[in-house]
Specification:
By secondary structure, this protein is mostly helical.
């Protein structure tokens, strides 16, 4: 029984490690993308141009005001 478990673990370990690598890659990429997007929106809100500042404020307020499930569902259907 134990040898069967160890055999299965040995067979699936490379697949699990590939999944872990992909998870770390997606995490780093999403962190970088969200940082750039957040910086851009913050700079928009701080802009002296009223139209740019207003647009940035509206986008930030909409994102902050909507529940995350609504945002995720809208991303799936876009």
């Amino acid at each position: 029984m134990a040898s069967s478990f160890l055999q299965h673990a040995q067979d699936f370990l490379p697949i699990l490690l590939q999944g872990a690598v992909v998870t770390v890659q997606v995490t780093v990429l999403s962190f970088l993308l969200s940082s750039v997007l957040g910086l851009a929106l913050a700079l928009m809100k701080l802009s002296p141009v009223r139209a740019v500042s207003w647009t940035g404020a509206v986008i930030v307020n909409v994102i902050r005001g909507l529940p995350i499930i609504v945002q995720l569902l809208s991303l799936i259907h876009i």
